[in-house]
Amino acid sequence: MLPLGCAAVVNLLTRSIRHQGEWFWGCFAAQREQAPSPQVLRMAASLSPPSPLVQKNLN
User: Fold this and answer.
1) Is 57 part of a structural domain of the chain?
2) Which of 1, 6, 15, 52 pairs with 38 at a CA distance of 20 to 30 A?
């Protein structure tokens, strides 16, 4: 058996290691649901055909 006081030290270490994954939660764009980059939106728009409303306004 461990002497008194040693079990508390082990529990503190276990608790800090167990919650280590939560330290970085929310640091990345996917976790924050950040909006996509404007460059990606512009590139996607250039690949798709223009809508009829845009063509009508251009004529």
Assistant:
1) no
2) 52
